[in-house]
Specification:
Layout lengths: L2 E2 L6 E2 L14 H4 L40 H16 L3 E7 L2 E7 H4 L4 H20 L10 H21 L9 E5 L1 H26 L1
Antiparallel strand pairs: 1-2, 3-4, 3-5
Helix pairs in contact: 2-4, 2-6, 4-5, 5-6
């Protein structure tokens, strides 16, 4: 089948490598004519980067599964919820001559207990990630035991300090005592930390 020269449109034999009229290479002998690279706007990258929905990485599908949480995690989650609620219950009561004159919640008596509130929220968020993804969906990954032990111990220490130091009342003959919220908070903080702290203490004493 005759070939058509792409340069001068002259006819050439099927087995010819070059055009007999202008000498241009023909497709059969010299291969297909090179194609020009696609044009792009000045300053644009040569290859457009592929990015996911999260700026370069895509999150795996979230599927909540309680089996991802250990028994210690479940105990800590429930106890931390009780601790969080107890921060807003009555911690201290003031009495004069056997008559109760007023009460104060944990966060109103000790403002630093909001640290416990924040740490409880972090525990809930972290355990939600573990239940849905098995771990944090981003780097760096935190050692599970290290995070839970540190978070629950911080809550226990702060709660214990707030429990011990009663607020002062600038009135004579007024006594300040503990109320239900303070006792509940201390018990909840101990229960949340115990499943992580006790095995570590046993391992060190063996």
């Amino acid at each position: 089948m005759p070939q058509t020269c792409p340069q001068c449109q002259s006819q050439a034999p099927d087995d010819a490598n070059n055009c007999s009229n202008c000498g241009a290479p023909l497709a059969a002998g010299a291969g297909a004519a090179p194609t020009a690279p696609p044009t792009r706007a000045p300053g644009a990258p040569a290859t457009a980067p592929t990015t996911g929905s999260a700026g370069g990485s895509t999150l795996p599908a979230y599927k909540f599964d309680m089996n991802h949480l250990t028994l210690a995690d479940r105990i800590a989650a429930v106890a931390s919820l009780v601790l969080l609620i107890s921060l807003f219950l009555d911690w201290f009561t003031a009495s004069l001559g056997g008559f109760t004159g007023g009460s104060a919640s944990g966060v109103s008596a000790h403002g630093y207990l909001y640290i416990v509130f924040i740490v409880c929220l972090l525990i809930f968020a972290y355990l939600a990630c573990v239940a849905g993804w098995g771990n944090l969906p981003f780097a760096p990954q935190l050692p599970h035991l290290t995070f839970m032990l540190a978070a629950t111990i911080v809550n226990l220490v702060i709660t214990f300090i707030a429990f011990i130091f009663k607020p002062s009342v600038p009135l004579n003959n007024v006594s300040v005592g503990w109320s239900f919220g303070a006792v509940l908070a201390l018990i909840a903080a101990i229960v949340a930390a115990a499943p992580y702290a006790i095995p570590q203490l046993r391992a060190k004493t063996m």
